[in-house]
Specification:
Elements lengths: L12 H17 L1 H10 L8 H27 L7 H36 L7 H31 L17
Helix pairs in contact: 3-4, 4-5
């Protein structure tokens, strides 16, 4: 006789993620939690919460992605360990985590620039230039991280640099 009863199903990952986001939004607006965080951790203020949230997302994303890569390359293929795949995955995960960190810092800089522009003071001053320069430098850093990510992907897929005087595998011309 077969079991016609449904087996216990684990909640899907996205349901857990939505619950965590709802809990974080609740904690963001919960005044005693704000006071506790401000008193317990120095230099964490709710004026720079975007950067801290991006940092938290980056750390969690790094841990989850690294665990999945490790599980895929080490546990599932026990007879043949794919160390090269694990190295490339780790490099890509690290670079993408850097992109998350820099993107959070960029969002925080844009927020600070908007706050400066809405404060009612002088529009063009040293503070405006400093904030605008930080946004430009962070965007350049994001682009460099993205290009590094694409370079790692190209090496993983087998890209080899061309050597002068060599055709497509037929020897010298």
């Amino acid at each position: 006789m077969t079991d016609d009863q449904p087996k216990y199903r684990r909640p899907r990952f996205w349901i857990i993620l939505v619950a965590i986001v709802i809990a974080l939004i609740f904690l963001y607006f919960y005044k005693p939690f704000q006071d506790y965080i401000s008193a317990a951790i120095p230099n964490v203020h709710f004026s720079n919460v975007l950067f801290w949230f991006a940092s938290l997302v980056g750390v969690v994303a790094y841990a989850v992605a690294h665990w999945q890569s490790f599980r895929q390359n080490m546990f599932r293929a026990v007879t043949e360990l794919d160390v090269e795949g694990l190295v490339y995955d780790t490099l890509q995960i690290t670079v993408l985590t850097g992109v998350i960190f820099v993107a959070g810092a960029t969002l925080q800089s844009v927020e600070m620039l908007g706050e400066h522009l809405m404060s009612g003071g002088p529009l063009l001053d040293a503070g405006f230039g400093r904030r605008l320069a930080s946004i430009v430098m962070l965007v350049i850093l994001i682009i460099l991280f993205y290009l590094l990510h694409q370079l790692i992907r190209a090496f993983r897929r087998g890209w080899r640099p061309r050597r002068p005087g060599m055709s497509s595998g037929n020897g010298p011309r």
